[in-house]
Amino acid sequence: MAAEPGIAWSTALVAFVGAVPLWRYTTNAITVAHEGGHAVFGWLFGSAVKHVKIFRGGGGEMLPGRENWVSTFVSLLAGYLGPSIFGFAGAQLLVRDFDPRTVLFLSLVFLAGVLVMVRNLFGVFVILAVGAILWVVAMRSAEPVQLAFAYVWVWFLLMGGVRQVPELFWAMHTDPSTDAGLLQQHTHIGDVVWLFVFWLLSLGALVWGGALLLRG
Asked: For residue 60, what are the β-bridge partners?
């Protein structure tokens, strides 16, 4: 389904409101993509996953089981890059004229995979709430609504991927077990370097993915 002229700009504005002024209320959706990124990419490279937890206020936890050096490294990278990766993949699908339902259904498959690994009630609630919204839009709404929502969802993931990095900056001052801190222990490269890597790659995904959406 072809997008109407201007849909990318208008949906970007809606997503910006969700990712910046309303961040306090939407942050948990990005946390699901963050912790899910840890779990999925770690699993793809050989890690076992014991559990995932989503906490109030935007925090989360992914506890690995059996793992190797590569899976640990990839898993640690994939947390803060997870929302940007998923958002960029969604942008690629939309500009290549895939049905917006494809983006929504793939998101639902991802949520179902994370749900299986979640071990706290709040995490289950967040995933079911996000999944219910995606399901209703995919199954009960008209095609123009599905397209607009898919654009908003992809923009939100791209923007949320950037928006979460400042949270890491502040956490690094008090918590040595942040993803950047663990990467420092794992690679002997400073946590500030990893903070910059997260910021640069997530911003790059937003700029590149956003340019695709705006041109498409």
From this structure: 54
Q: By residue range, what is the domain housing residue 16?
A: 7-215
Residues in the chain: 216
Spatial distance between the Cα atoms of 164 and 156, rounded to a whole number of angstroms: 12
Is 187:69 a contact under the CB 8 Å cutoff?
no
Does 56 map to a domain? yes
How far apart are the C-alpha atoms of 44 and 77, rounded to whole Å?
Answer: 13
The sign of the torsion formed by the CA atoms of 46, 50, 56, 57 equals: negative
Total domain count for the chain? 1
Residue 109 located in a structural domain = yes
Q: What is the pLDDT along the chain (216 residues), one digit of tens a residue?
A: 556 658 999 999 999 999 999 999 999 999 999 999 999 998 889 888 888 999 998 889 988 877 788 989 999 999 999 999 999 999 999 999 899 999 999 999 999 999 999 999 999 999 999 999 999 999 999 999 999 999 999 999 999 999 999 999 888 888 888 999 999 999 999 999 999 999 999 999 999 999 999 987
Query: Is 161 domain-assigned?
Result: yes
> Model's pTM, two decimal places?
0.94
C-alpha 97/C-alpha 52 separation (Å) is 34
